[in-house]
Design a protein that fits this description.
- The protein has about 110 residues and is an alpha+beta fold.
- Helix content is about 20%, strand content about 30%.
- It has one domain.
- β5 and β6 form a beta hairpin.
- The chain is globular.
């Protein structure tokens, strides 16, 4: 899968999950339509990949996160990395993220 290559085309949302972990959600609404999640506890620490925080390894298509394809129901929590217990975004936070994704995707499409 591709990565979000251009911060200029990405939209960012910061959310603190119920477990207290702050995450940055980056979404690219270009043809790729990707979502990536970073752990903000490490923002700016060059040992953890720089300005966005530590990349959690979580990357998915916007359509998948919204449940518009066969890979996801579009509901529930998101376990970003099963090996790291802190890297879970709870259901309530995911509902906020999904609403934000839908709103911004519609704005970008409307501006085209």
């Amino acid at each position: 899968m591709d990565v979000i290559e251009s911060p200029e085309t990405a939209h960012c949302m910061d959310v603190t999950a119920r477990n207290g972990i702050p995450f940055r959600v980056m979404a690219d609404f270009t043809d790729k339509g990707l979502v990536e999640v970073y752990d903000l506890r490490h923002k700016g620490d060059s040992r953890f990949c720089g300005p966005y925080g530590q990349f959690t390894g979580a990357r998915a298509y916007v359509t998948t996160v919204l449940g518009e394809d066969a890979h996801c129901s579009g509901s529930g929590a998101w376990v970003l990395d099963a090996g790291i217990g802190d890297w879970v975004i709870d259901v309530v936070s995911m509902n906020v993220i999904r609403a934000w994704l839908q709103l911004n995707r519609n704005r970008v499409k409307g501006a085209e």
